[in-house]
Amino acid sequence: MARINPYLTFNGNCEQAFIFYLSVFGGKFKDFSRFGEFSPIKGQELPESDLNKIMHVSLPISKETILMGSDALPIHGAITIGQNLSLSVDTDTKEEADKIFNQLAKGGKITMPIATTFWGAYFGMLIDPFGIIWMVNYDEKK
Question: Do residues 17 and 10 lie in contact, with contact meaning Cβ atoms separated by under 8 Å?
């Protein structure tokens, strides 16, 4: 069964924001990785100024919900408030991920085709026909 979690994107202050969210919700980070830990990314050489930015962070805030986030890289353009929230769908199977991804993409725009990533997940991103940004994920490491 699919689970939906909010995914926030920041213009370089993701770490500051998530330290604040940690103080609000408590708990501990499940994931916390920086771009420099995965350099080079798909053949991209990142400037020194981007290596310390947050590539992915996740903070469980209940048994059912995980707040996730990352910093946008300048090569992707500035993030506009209102366009910095995505819905992340985590699935139980690769087949379920494909089904959900393909159905959401109908009439929309695929921004990252669903495929196995360098971090080991089966993952893709799209904008649905209504302008909502979706991330579909199957964690192959389960």
Answer: yes
Question: Distance between CA atoms of 79 and 19, rounded to whole angstroms?
Answer: 20
Q: Where are the alpha helices (DSSP H) in the chain?
A: 14-25, 94-105
Q: Which two tokens stand for residue 24?
A: 């609000």
Distance CA 14, CA 108 (A): 28
Q: Whole-model pTM above 0.85?
A: no
pLDDT in tens, 2-48: 889 999 998 899 999 999 899 988 999 999 999 888 755 555 677 88
The CA distance from 65 to 99, in Å, is 22
3-state secondary structure of 8: strand
